[in-house]
Amino acid sequence: MAFFNGIDKIKFEGINTTNQLAFRHYNQEEMVMGKSMKEHLKFSMSYWHTLTGMGVDPFGQGTAIRPWDETEDKIEQAKTRVKVAFEFMEKLGLEYFCFHDRDIAPEGKDLAETNAILDEIVDVIEMEMQRTGIKLLWGTTNAFSHPRFVHGAGTSCNADVFAYAATQVKKALEITHRLNGAGYVFWGGREGYETLLNTNMGLELDNLATFLHLAVDYAKEIGFKGQFYIEPKPKEPTKHQYDFDAATVLGFLRKYDLLDSFKLNIEANHATLAGHTFQHELAFCRENGVLGSIDANQGDILLGWDTDQIPTNIYDAVLAMYEVLLAGGFTTGGLNFDAKVRRASFEPIDLFYAYIAGMDTFAKGLKVAAKLLEDGVFENFKEERYASYKSGIGAKIRAGKTTFTELEQHALQYGVREIASGRQEMLENILNQYIYG
Amino acid sequence: MAFFNGIDKIKFEGINTTNQLAFRHYNQEEMVMGKSMKEHLKFSMSYWHTLTGMGVDPFGQGTAIRPWDETEDKIEQAKTRVKVAFEFMEKLGLEYFCFHDRDIAPEGKDLAETNAILDEIVDVIEMEMQRTGIKLLWGTTNAFSHPRFVHGAGTSCNADVFAYAATQVKKALEITHRLNGAGYVFWGGREGYETLLNTNMGLELDNLATFLHLAVDYAKEIGFKGQFYIEPKPKEPTKHQYDFDAATVLGFLRKYDLLDSFKLNIEANHATLAGHTFQHELAFCRENGVLGSIDANQGDILLGWDTDQIPTNIYDAVLAMYEVLLAGGFTTGGLNFDAKVRRASFEPIDLFYAYIAGMDTFAKGLKVAAKLLEDGVFENFKEERYASYKSGIGAKIRAGKTTFTELEQHALQYGVREIASGRQEMLENILNQYIYG
Amino acid sequence: MAFFNGIDKIKFEGINTTNQLAFRHYNQEEMVMGKSMKEHLKFSMSYWHTLTGMGVDPFGQGTAIRPWDETEDKIEQAKTRVKVAFEFMEKLGLEYFCFHDRDIAPEGKDLAETNAILDEIVDVIEMEMQRTGIKLLWGTTNAFSHPRFVHGAGTSCNADVFAYAATQVKKALEITHRLNGAGYVFWGGREGYETLLNTNMGLELDNLATFLHLAVDYAKEIGFKGQFYIEPKPKEPTKHQYDFDAATVLGFLRKYDLLDSFKLNIEANHATLAGHTFQHELAFCRENGVLGSIDANQGDILLGWDTDQIPTNIYDAVLAMYEVLLAGGFTTGGLNFDAKVRRASFEPIDLFYAYIAGMDTFAKGLKVAAKLLEDGVFENFKEERYASYKSGIGAKIRAGKTTFTELEQHALQYGVREIASGRQEMLENILNQYIYG
Amino acid sequence: MAFFNGIDKIKFEGINTTNQLAFRHYNQEEMVMGKSMKEHLKFSMSYWHTLTGMGVDPFGQGTAIRPWDETEDKIEQAKTRVKVAFEFMEKLGLEYFCFHDRDIAPEGKDLAETNAILDEIVDVIEMEMQRTGIKLLWGTTNAFSHPRFVHGAGTSCNADVFAYAATQVKKALEITHRLNGAGYVFWGGREGYETLLNTNMGLELDNLATFLHLAVDYAKEIGFKGQFYIEPKPKEPTKHQYDFDAATVLGFLRKYDLLDSFKLNIEANHATLAGHTFQHELAFCRENGVLGSIDANQGDILLGWDTDQIPTNIYDAVLAMYEVLLAGGFTTGGLNFDAKVRRASFEPIDLFYAYIAGMDTFAKGLKVAAKLLEDGVFENFKEERYASYKSGIGAKIRAGKTTFTELEQHALQYGVREIASGRQEMLENILNQYIYG
User: Fold this and answer.
1) List of chain B residues whose C-beta atoms are within 8 Å of the C-beta of residue A248
2) Quick check: B423 and A168 in contact, CB under 8 A?
3) What is the pLDDT of residue B1?
4) Inter-chain CB proximity A15 and D422 less than 8 Å
5) Per-residue pLDDT, A122
6) CA of A422 to nearest chain B CA: how many angstroms apart?
7) Which of A21, B162, C147, D229 counts the highest number of beta carbons within 10 A?
8) Is B423 in Cβ contact with C353 (below 8 Å)?
9) pLDDT tens digit string along C221-265?
10) Distance, in angstroms, between B217 CA and closest chain C CA?
């Protein structure tokens, strides 16, 4: 049965097509720097935004028209959604997906029943995965929507909630493992605080570290070898989220001796909410060897909340793919569209328009980034710019083999010789040239 | 000679005075929790804003009326300013000050001459310190104003600049040591980047760490035992400053094995530019044992740049002093007014109004914070709120002695028992009651 | 029947009470500048946040514990809520309330049934109003939550929606009139746009003006003499809301000849989202004679969305009441708490803590503002500051009776004589003195 | 004499050139929608950023290398700069420039001397204009940098300052008139306030209106027929600038009966500081018939101050030119590059790279915008989207010829018939297709 009647498999038709249900840039087998586009990009569908996002916002009800959802039986609905999801992915040529436990299945009357329902839905997912060859990029837990998580999960002030959240992660790890998930993400939906007047931040951070250590231990116990990720976000829903940005998370992992077990999952809109560019967060991860996976979306930088828009900004896509290529490409990670259609784009076909827009933007981004790298445009400029660190006093600095006294002698003798312009405007113009000629 | 004619020593006159040149709350010998107010607060004058700040802004020239500055001889002017500074501190009862090397003395034709001039001015400062008993809270270097630092100092792309900056810090450390400075601050004025298109962030961060290690080594060499601080700031002047916030700095110090040698100097306005409250940054430092010193000021949170206003917000002062008291008080650090009179407050007497406003706000803040602690208002609430971690499964979590399997058994057996309200509104109301009854 | 068992009528007990269920400052009959506190403040309950707000946020379900809500019968529930509301207002001494049509009653299967249900609930409200003497400050329409308003109401791209919204406002006007509402508010929940790529802004603004004119006409037709208000908000839910801020709304009213029929309802959190202080928006309205009513709340200025927090910041309360007093006090308007308890303050008693906090903050604010005015603190300073406009060339400027040529003669003759300092720091310190001594 | 040795006239070489000192898109005589590119774009040089901007920022001295500036004689320097400016414009093919009075000439010992110096420099400019055919797009006054304007110019609390500012504008109008300037801009550098504690906002706004009326009167008196513009900006340098955004300015002009005499000069970076997109401000002006001229630059939206960067973002350029074309093109106005090279782009050649980047971005933007319009991409979509307003009840609404009662009948009869998706993602994807295929 087809849920998206009238929509065929989306094909690459190149830039001259007038068909808006076609790819202009994403040609999955096209080779770029020795690898196919699909291997580079590893596009993934987000189950939550795509299947369960209804267009609710703080001022209004859902608007989404989803004919397949029209049943009172929540379990039946969940099974149907799996079918819808795989038809959608097949038609778009998406080879990966990501989910939270609570996206794919409804809760039961208690935890035991909830877990049983989850298993029932995972059976259907597993069959669809076998049928289609589509893979699980990563799984995760929703430990933030239910009222029990009002004060956090691993950072709750209530030990019962910690235990409950741990139990939920345990199960989510098991199903991720069963489905051969390549990774598992922690996004601490309510791991943060609303006011310091009632918060013991030290205790909460310690507990969060304990929580993660226990997860790592359990993964070993069951033989799950997928990559763990933490996804930074600075605010929303809590006033201060502990995983503020990549630097904060990295500092946390170092402090609590978790650095060996985690990489980061960087989301564009979370980067900008923290006051950083998307590229900055990726570059920071790359420099520290923890660039794991990407939640591709974009925010409206004039708005102060997480809008999770479909990524269509070509600059962001080029610079993101540039960082991914510099980092050697994805290993376990990929590009997950943690992005939703606008509330006013409420028809099923808008899901296609949206994914096509996102995929084509990143495909073009990949091609431009690869060309920039192959031509050495920015890398050669940088090589030259930092040349003084290759010999003489610069080389000593790089090696950490000098002293203030020696540097003083150098400064008194040479002062500061020629400093070169940073050429920002020229470089930005060249970036434009690579994008549109 | 008196530069502030007609202004006597500012006295404590209590809340019923009508004199705006008097303290209403700052009564330096008054005991609060077993220590005098002045020992708690350790107020410090910022040399730059107070003596050399002229009210220049990006759209206009200086407005400040400073009769003592009217001379063409820059060295004479610098010496006079020292006298002005000490008269000002004496009249306000300020016992500490802070400076950058380039605040106190003009540059000469080359580095050697510059250093000689610096020594000449330091002679005058030293005499004034002996005369008055006023102490140096910390010294620092200005390695950001001169064009040679256009691409940074320790993170410059040019090794000569690295050496030049090192030489400048070397000298600044020497004079700080000579003046028995209790600390030395690194604020990386241009340690950051303008665009990633031309920046090797990894190399720059490595070099910054090397720079700090060399400084630590040199301090040991000359026997300087003062505390090193890093002062976080997220942006301005560069688009991205590497020392973004406390968490970023702490992660950096951990990565590069510098944590033993550094604490943090937290500035209120830098906190808010990074998207944090002042209290958050202080609490984060406290929890990590690196709360060193404070740059007291306030920003206009509706504006996006560092306005460095005189701190008059009582909430910020209460909550900052609350964190300082929780941390056990200042040791080497203090409250440095890194704050400037508004460009439109251009008369010398405005400097007095400004410092009085700031000092009284923090004095009141101290008294309120002490009372809140003595009454256990928030601490008792928190104690109760986290009580579930004191025994049973909670205690095991705290000890790190549990597993996901055990937690699952707990969750299946107990579920989530009662969760308590966070009571934010009641707590905020109580805070008001402590401030104004 | 009592819904808030164990909570008595909240009494004024003064600043020395330890009872958190008491007023320390709000003493309703206490006279301030010749009028009782309750006449000055005209506190109002917001029906939506108080009765129907469940603590839902974009990342989680409702948390609020509201035992009275537990019924499947939506009409019965609506009637019970009316009783709860009036008990709540009686216990707090609130004399006013505000509502949207959809807060007080559920929708039926079509518009006719919806209107019939509405009438049924209004009957209950009317009886409670008669019983208690509590009054309706203003009514309004929710024309933004239902999916039909996805593209706006009066600014929808679809004429049917325009008609539907008009019909809804027609009915809301009728019930507001029936309940002797003192005013009627337009907050254009989705009157704005998501993207200009699909928006005809000119047509939408013209239609909005037409919509308002039709409302004015209809009010005349039915004899409703209450005050119309527009409530500015800059963003959220739409990317750009047409009623951005007070200046934008005023310009709109002028352009479309609506200025005679409307005043503004200023919300604190909307002011800050637009980049203004709460006081600025009030002052701007005051200067233009359109300061109508206030939605009292506060935002977290470090967050980018409308947090609608209970107002506890004393500075904002003082300066808001200062503007209200300067404007001569409220006539038709009042202080409506468009504020909600935090999601983590989920118990019924938190509603009391919250309103007490807000009411006491504004009561203290009123007392401080009145004292500042009586003492002429700021007004005398301003009088002096602008004195040069009282005579000579200044008086001619004020009268518009000069020319560039005459001004040039003045400037060539006198240049610029003494300019005085703005004394911002001294004034801020004095403000503190009036707040806490 | 050539100041830019080694740099020839910049030529159009098309997208295949490797020369970074060439245009790839700006082909000045190329016809686009019936008009040459240069007629469409009317590029203008900003005298201040280009000739007198030295790379000073709040944390550092100027960095710019400008060999021609090296003289002690300020008048000689000013004359040389004129020559440099015209050589620069000639080489880039810029046909317009803009200036403030204080950019082009130094101040003398008093106003009379200042005016005499100004005349002397204007002589040189006039000769260069005659020699080259380059025209003055608009002139303006700098009434914000000098300390006398610390409290504003037309909104100063001091009547002498009002008179002084008027005198300065009088002279600036005279020289703009003499040079056949096509317009005159008011940007109220310090027309705003720092704190409401000392500000009479009503008086200041009234005075500002008087100031503008006097300017209009004087222009008539001397026969100046150029267009007057106001340039909105929300903050910086003052905390609140009165000309916050386009809507605020328009409301002000309406209130004070100035709408006939003014249009707006929209700056991209000012738009974003006010929380709007550049396109929004242009569209708002277009809809109100006051789109006058453009200050082309771009801000860093993650930073909170006016960065005045060279505009290189193609989306902004396309959408800006789209609005200009929709508005029928520039009449008196043009595209003035109110943009500066980064402080780290300090070589003279960077000025060329920067202008080339900006001009090529807008040239490409023009071509894309024209194609979008010619193909009716967005306009047809909108036409269809609002079709319900063309007949029936919609047409009555548009004509203002209906009532709530009639609308109610319509709603009860028809309810809301089909609502269409807004298709934002598809439209954004199409925009990308027009930019890069």
Assistant:
1) 245, 247-248, 251
2) no
3) 62
4) no
5) 98
6) 7
7) B162
8) yes
9) 999 999 999 999 999 999 999 999 999 999 999 999 999 999 999
10) 40
**Could you tell me the pLDDT band of residue A50, with boundaries at 50, 70 and 90?**
very high
Count of beta carbons in the 10 Å neighbourhood of residue C418: 7
Of C54, C118, C151, C92, nearest in space to C346 by CA = C54
Say how far apart CA D119 and CA B414 lie, in whole Å: 88
Strand A31-32 with A35-36, pairing: antiparallel
Instruction: Please state the three-class secondary structure of C118-165 as a single string.
Output: HHHHHHHHHHHHHHHCCEEEEEECCCCCCHHHCCCCCCCCCHHHHHHH
ipTM value, please give it. 0.97
Q: Which of B150, B397, B405 sits opposite A419 (nearest CB)?
A: B150
Q: How does pLDDT run across B172-224, given as a tens digit for each residue?
A: 999 999 999 999 999 989 999 999 999 999 999 999 999 999 999 999 999 99
A39 class by beta-carbon count within 10 Å (0-12 exposed, 13-18 middle, 19+ buried): middle
Q: Is the peptide bond before D147 cis (omega within 30 degrees of 0)?
A: no
How near does any CA of chain B get to the CA of C217, in Å? 40
- Average pLDDT, rounded, for chain A: 97
Cα–Cα dist B54/B70, whole Å: 13
pLDDT of residue C1: 62
Contact assessment for residue A133 and residue A158, using Cβ atoms and an 8 Å cutoff: no
Q: For residue B239, what is the nearest residue in chain D, using CA coordinates?
A: D303
Distance from CA of D55 to the nearest CA of B (A): 9
Query: Whole-angstrom Cα distance, residue B233 to residue D58?
Result: 15
Question: How far is residue D40 from each of residues B102, B274, C257, C369, D36, measured CA to CA in Å?
Answer: 50, 42, 36, 56, 6
To the query of whether residue B100 is one of the catalytic residues in this protein, the response is yes
Write down the residue that tokens 């020593």 correspond to: B9
The shortest CB-CB distance from B364 to any of C356, C364, C436 is to C436
* pTM of the predicted model as reported, rounded to 2 decimal places: 0.98
> Using one digit for the tens of pLDDT, what is the confidence trace for D341-390?
999 999 999 999 999 999 999 999 999 999 999 999 999 999 999 999 99
Place of tokens 């500000």: D199
User: Would you place residue C14 in the very low, low, confident or very high pLDDT band (cuts 50, 70, 90)?
Assistant: very high
Query: In the structure encoding, which two tokens stand for residue D9, read together?
Result: 């006239």
- Name which of C244, C343, C350 to mutate to probe chain A: the one with the most chain A Cβ atoms within 10 A of its Cβ: C343
Number of B/C CB contacts below 8 angstroms equals: 127
Instruction: Please tell me which residue in C25, C101, C103, C360 is annotated as part of the active site.
Output: C103
Residue listed under structure tokens 């980018």: C304
Q: What is the pLDDT of residues A353-412, one digit of tens each?
A: 999 999 999 999 999 999 999 999 999 999 999 999 999 999 999 999 999 999 999 999
- By DSSP bridging, strand C43-46 and strand A291-295 are unpaired
User: CA A338 to CA A309: how far, in whole Å?
Assistant: 8
Contact between residue C316 and residue C283 where contact means Cβ atoms under 8 Å apart: no
Contacts of B254 in chain A (CB under 8 A): 251, 254-255
- Over residues C341-349, the mean pLDDT reads 98
Spans in chain D with pLDDT lower than 70: 1
- Do the Cβ atoms of D296 and D337 come closer than 8 Å? yes
Helices (H), A179-326: 201-222, 246-255, 268-273, 278-287, 314-326
Tokens 């996102």 correspond to A358
* Cβ neighbours for D375, distance < 8 A, ≥ 6 positions apart: none
Question: Which of chain C's residues have a Cβ under 8 Å away from the Cβ of B353?
Answer: 423, 425-426, 429
Residue corresponding to tokens 């310091």: A196
Nearest in space to C38 (alpha carbons), one of C27, C25, C22, C24: C27
Reading the block at residue C55, the tokens are 């603590």
- Which among D407, D410, D433 is the top mutation candidate for probing chain C, defined by the most C β-carbons within 10 Å of its own β-carbon? D407
Q: Residue B296 and residue B321: Cα distance in Å, rounded? A: 11
Q: Tally the residues of chain A.
A: 437
A interface test, pick of C141, C142, C150 with most A CB neighbours within 10 Å: C150
